[in-house]
Design goal:
Layout lengths: L1 E9 L2 E9 L2 H15 L9 H13 L8 E8 L2 H8 L1 H19 L3 E6 L2 E6 L4 H13 L6 E3 L2 E3 L3 E8 L5 H17 L5 E3 L2 H20 L5 E10 L4 E13 L3 E3 L1 H11 L2 H22 L7 E5 L2 H4 L4 H12 L6 E6 H6 L1 H12 L4 E7 L6 H6 L4 E4 L1 H5 L5 H14 L3 E4 L5 H9 L4 E2 L13 H6 L15
Parallel strand pairs: 8-9, 11-13, 13-14, 14-15, 15-16, 16-17, 17-18
Antiparallel strand pairs: 1-2, 3-5, 3-8, 4-5, 6-7, 10-11, 10-18, 11-12
Helix pairs in contact: 3-4, 7-8, 9-11
Amino acid sequence: MEISFSTLETPQGEVISAAIRDVSDRRAFERRLAYQATHDQLTDLPNRELFTQRLGRLLHGRLSVDPPVAVCLLDLDHFKYLNDSRGHRVGDSLVVAVSARIGRAVGSHFMARVGGDEFGLLVEGLAGPDEVLAFAERLLTSFDQPFAVDGIDCYITASIGVAFGDASDRVEVVLSNADAAVNRAKRNGRARVELFDEALTLEAAHRIATEAELHLALERGEFHLVYQPVIELDGARWIGTEALLRWNHPEHGEVPPVEFIPIAEDTGLIVPIGRWVLEQSCAQLARWHHDHPELAELSISVNVSSRQLEHDQFVNDVARILRETGLPPGHVVLEITESFFIRDIQAAVRRLHALKDLGIRLAIDDFGTGFSSLFSLSRLPVDIVKIDKAFIDGLGSGYDAVVTAVVTLGVAFDLDVVAEGIETEAQRDRLVDLGCRFAQGYYFSVPLDPGSVPGLVDRGRPTAGATPTGRGW
């Protein structure tokens, strides 16, 4: 109830009046507003604001926190692709199902939804990192079984990052540390737990510096391409060459692709960089065709990132580059990893058919390291399958059967099969015995600068037995 008093002057004297109001509805409305400000409407869990407040009280409400409070950030893997392919309604239902299952697993520990597909846990009372990591590993087992959403079994995994906070730590720093640990878990393969340590601080600083320098590298002309031959094993005849990206940093020298390509992928910089690679490699092939008529049948292979393929303008960019260079489309091969196919097979088929309509050829790179099924492969408009180097390194063991299976698969689906990463004569000879027709690797040649390619192709075979100098993209 709310009572307000006022006075009135009357001929009989001063009168005091009291107005009494029932404010139950208003108070309930205010409580609803306060609740909505600190809770997630979809899952009814506390939101990031309340999670941050609660962590602040735990850290700074007493002189010491013993044992330290553990912050676990749990992020769903590849949720965006499921959300895009199945629709937001299914995505929302999955988030609700996940929150319910995690809620049953965490017991009394404080849990919140801190992002679209991210959950935060405040874990108290566990003695040290080993117990907290064991707790986080148990959480991951919650994802072993599928989630039933609208009659569909949805399989999804999660990555967890763990950081500890003490009374002297700032809330934003602890959350940032946990987020860095989640990112490392995703970079290391997902569906795993990572614990924050000081090495991650240095790694984060290096990553930020590299990202800033990548923004400038393209406009400063610090990138260049080298070319590695694709060989027909019968007679060691060049049939094509793969364009490999290199970054010559003005201070640090040659930066390994493994250090900057993942950062370019994560930040989206791979889109303009990849466009530059395609433009330069196609222009180079056009020059070879024009200046060296004997190279008229040489093709060019270009690695294409999933981020590029998902970009709306990618197909138009490819069409424009073909027009500008005048290349026959059949001499251009775009190499795509299996990860693009497994995210959304229907969207992948549509995008690849649009590329095929331009007349170019498509290759699946690193075949065997992903999860594409034979059924999926039969639906994809691809021309070439490239066997991952990991299987080539295992030749002479059980991997011989894998290579044989892929070669047989190529025959069945009318695909060319290329073995990657050949480094020894024994590997080459074994591939010939297994029926593989095409290969590339350091045994045949290191990646070459553009000026070295025509002379070697004209002589009919590459430099055999070259010494490996590093991996390319």
